[in-house]
Fold these 2 entries.
Entry 1:
Amino acid sequence: MTSSTVGGAGSPAPITVTISGAGGQIGYAAMFRIASGAMFGPDQPVALRLLEIPQGVKGAEGAALELTDCAFPLLASVDIATAPERGFDGANVALLVGSRPRTAGMERADLLAANGAIFGPQGRAINDHAAEDVRVLVVGNPANTNALIAQRNAPDVPADRFTALTRLDHNRAVGLLAERAGAAVADISGVTIWGNHSTTQYPDLSHATVAGRPALDVVGAEWGRGAYADRVAKRGAEIIEVRGGSSVASAANAAIDHVRDWVLGTGNAAATSGAPAPWTSVSLPSTGAYGIPEDLIASVPARSINGQWQVVEGLSVDEFSRARIDASVAELAAERDQVAALGLI
Ligand SMILES: NC(=O)C1=CN([C@@H]2O[C@H](COP(=O)(O)OP(=O)(O)OC[C@H]3O[C@@H](n4cnc5c(N)ncnc54)[C@H](O)[C@@H]3O)[C@@H](O)[C@H]2O)C=CC1
Ligand SMILES: O=C([O-])CC(=O)C(=O)O
């Protein structure tokens, strides 16, 4: 709908980013940063596709007007769509943010059915219309199972292009650890979020370090495996209680971090230098690593190398961690069984 042209001769072709639920809060918080270059860097133009349902279109239209008013040099075009087929046409990156929130008295099966009605058709539209290199990040809850539904409805797209957001949980875990340890965020590494983006997730400090020292020694295992892990897992509810609304800017920031690291890489330099690369947490279709069944989309430690997520394998898992990982994976398996029973996958 609005349109401008970027760059001159030699400028790379724009990357098309589709945001579903673009008229909502996270979409609004994400799109200006994406248009400013936060996702792909200062030399890469972007084309934005804003996908909404009719009730949400006004929000997307208003945001598009403001995008024009920002005069972002990297923003090649903005289009608004209500049909997924058009919204995902040629998409290189798909951020699936719009979903059906749980309302009072709603059963989990009703929630999964309502989301199946969104993520099934969106998966099919991605399958049929997105660019060959499409990368999908599901933000809308229940994110892991919504990603599984979309993936199963897109049989022609490589399965590992479907991911769900646990980077927000990861960033929360890093931020809260740095705060407790009195350390800089840059001094923290080796944190992992395992399992589901839900309160069963396991924020794991077993391999984390603070300025090179084992994190569980720095903060104490009792706190690190107790109150801390609990607070990370329930941080979403804490934000809702304090703010009176769910996380928005931090969720948009995490989605941008996830896609930026996926496309630009977390470990390219280390892969060639032989130095250990930092990892992050990503909900990926399981490779079977760490005993996670292969048909689940579960959070694991991962690095992106040459544009592909690779699970960090071979980390030791003690009895405590095993039980916590298994509990969250069991919840994912139960969600998978429910959507399978509903015929959604
Ligand atoms: N994975 C994560 O870490 C996090 C996930 N979330 C989830 O992200 C989702 C979005 O959150 P907000 O932006 O705050 O919600 P919001 O309610 O402000 O926006 C959602 C938008 O999605 C649109 N929408 C609904 N169905 C759609 C469809 N079929 N196609 C296109 N658009 C559709 C709505 O019209 C609305 O504008 C929620 O499910 C929330 O629970 C939120 C924070 C963190
Ligand atoms: O519970 C919500 O809707 C928001 C959410 O996922 C989070 O903050 O982690």
Entry 2:
Amino acid sequence: MKVAVIGTGYVGLTTAVALAYLGHEVWGVDVDATKIRDLARGHPPIHEPGLEALLPLVQPRLHFTTAYADAIPGAEVILIAVGTPPGADGAPDLRYVRQAVEALALHLDGAHPVVAIKSTVPMGTGRWVRARIQEIRAEAYEVASNPEFLRQGSALHDTFYPNRIVIGADTPRAVAVLEALYRPLLEQSFPPPKGLPRPSGLEAVPLVATDLTSAELIKYAANAFLALKISFINEIAALAEQVGADATHVARGIGLDARIGPQFLRPGIGWGGSCFDKDTAALLALGRAHGTEMRIVQAARAVNHHQRERIIEKLTRELTTLRGRTVGLLGIAFKPHTDDLRDAPALAIAHRLIQCGAHVRLHDPVALARARREHPELERAYREHPTEVFEEADAVVLVTEWPQYLELPWETLAPRMRFPLVLDGRNVLDAARLTAAGFRYLGTGRCIAHTAPAPTPPR
Ligand SMILES: NC(=O)c1ccc[n+]([C@@H]2O[C@H](COP(=O)([O-])OP(=O)(O)OC[C@H]3O[C@@H](n4cnc5c(N)ncnc54)[C@H](O)[C@@H]3O)[C@@H](O)[C@H]2O)c1
Ligand SMILES: O=c1ccn([C@@H]2O[C@H](COP(=O)(O)OP(=O)(O)O[C@H]3O[C@H](CO)[C@@H](O)[C@H](O)[C@H]3O)[C@@H](O)[C@H]2O)c(=O)[nH]1
């Protein structure tokens, strides 16, 4: 099948590569000429595990262009995967979707492709896209919603082995065409790419076929639910610290209940990234626009915003003041295995620390180059080697759980600090090992023996 993918960012590029691997003839279109030039030379502009290795393998069936005229004519499916960043009031800014739709409409030929929206868009957008194309072409085209659920850092894995595929469309033909596009994924009939083994037990992927608007809402509901699971465990973690409990044990204790499930219950610094903040804000705005107050989502956001401030509070409590202190942050990317810095907690914490009069040092094994480009205001803080953030520091905070940080020569690091405090924002370090190495170790939501509160009698 000839497929056009509009937008070659985290979602569009991953989708294009995966579809080419499955045997489709794929055209990736982007307005960013630099990105397209790099891609055409086989250089992915983003860090995503497996992408660089897979790109040359699929190259014969994968084309990159800035010209809609190359990609659209003859395509059976057009996937829109452009950005939908937050607008001023939290509602998504749909200008890139509008621009993509207007550009593609000019090149539609008689083949009647299905236009499917992969970008996360407000309910009603699909119907608007259909109407706009009809207005431009004076003819009806089928439009579908095909929301994407991949996670950055495991984007290819999630694309090849999704939990489900959602297709929202108002005609059976649109569903049938997209079902045919994804058949190898639905039936898991393709040989797993090298380095991306199929999860054991995965034999088929469920298809959720629904109407356009429900599919659009599924995406927002999924992200909001995941976000509130994280905020829930973080709220429990805050209480655990006060009462002398271990929130990681609480998470395991509740997560084994099949009705709750173990995932997204890792207490920590809270969520970051390009999606959760944007999509929960969008849901609030959409609720407001339709007279529905989204109270649970609002609470989840409030808890998450406070998570970053809790790091500042903990450091202030431990160090009395932040003025003149030196604080090292391990990890800048919003999660491991990506170089994405959108809504990265480390950047927010770094700016708050500087505001409080502290000196900051920042390291990341992959995202440092992007941080230098996108956040030159922090240039003095960046360090090339992780051990440099410990030099004469008063505290080090592990913000992003890159596996490399577990391998640091911890036994040699405490003596290099002014005050050997380590705040483990992701609960991944070995508390006993660090304590033995001379650190004062503080986890998140875990009260270790010497910080436990005095016992209180039952009332
Ligand atoms: N990043 C994720 O993990 C993820 C996962 C699921 C869904 N989503 C959603 O998918 C969408 C894309 O997200 P992303 O992270 O890939 O964004 P991104 O910013 O990485 O990529 C968007 C791309 O679209 C291009 N673009 C903008 N206007 C264009 C136009 N008119 N024609 C062609 N290309 C154009 C940009 O140049 C950019 O390369 C968003 O709606 C997002 O919410 C993202
Ligand atoms: O138990 C957890 C799980 C995650 N996080 C944090 O949550 C954020 C988001 O992580 P993750 O969801 O793994 O990455 P994303 O790439 O943001 O993916 C989310 O957002 C995408 C964009 O919409 C969706 O497609 C995915 O399904 C959804 O998981 C990160 O800062 C994580 O550190 C936690 O704090 N605790």
